[in-house]
Design brief:
The protein has helices at about 5-10, 15-40, 45-55, 55-65, and strands at about 70, 75-80, 85-95, 100-110, 110-120, 130. The chain is α+β, with helices and mostly antiparallel strands and about 140 residues long. The chain folds into two domains: about 5-35; about 45-140, Roll (Nuclear Transport Factor 2, Chain: A), CATH 3.10.450. Strands 1, 2, 3, 4, 5 and 6 form a six-stranded antiparallel beta sheet that branches. Strand 3 (about 85-95) and strand 4 form a beta hairpin. The longest helix is centred in the N-terminal third of the chain and has 29 residues, at about 15-40. The model has no long low-confidence stretch (mean pLDDT about 90).
């Protein structure tokens, strides 16, 4: 009976075991990142922030059309029934430039309200405030 390759080369057991463990850790990390990113992308806060940035004339002038969000989103999102809070950084790009949407919002009674919503365009010193162009009554969603 012939021995298997691994039985004939026992010195490969540790490196192959380490490589297998490394691949499993990378796959697990990828799955976790996909779940977190999908959760952010499906949130009302994320969608409203990207929609408002894509509809703002200053943002479109600086970055070009269409405004598209990048894959990797960072920040915090906590929702518990009709309450919650969010603090997100959403990388975006247009045909002429890139930037980051910074959104801070809280949810009370099932209604989200932005307290901070700005777009920092790369190469521009001042951020574009997306809340200053709308009256307070329209900030709810």
């Amino acid at each position: 009976m012939q021995k298997s390759w691994l039985e004939r080369h026992p010195h490969w057991k540790i490196p192959l075991g380490f490589l297998t463990l490394l691949v499993l850790i990378i796959v697990f990390g990828g799955v976790v990142m996909t779940i977190v990113t999908t959760t952010f992308r499906n949130s009302d806060v994320y969608r409203e922030a990207v929609t408002r940035a894509g509809a703002d004339a200053q943002v479109l002038e600086q970055m070009g059309e269409p405004i598209q969000a990048a894959w990797l989103i960072s920040g915090d999102l906590h929702v518990s029934g009709s309450t919650g809070n969010a603090n997100l950084s959403i990388p975006v790009s247009g045909s002429r430039g890139k930037g980051v949407i910074r959104a801070v919002a809280s949810k009370t009674g099932g209604v989200w309200r932005f307290t901070y919503l700005q777009v920092q365009v790369n190469g521009r010193s001042e951020p574009i405030d997306l809340l200053s162009v709308q009256p307070p009554a329209e900030r709810d969603f």
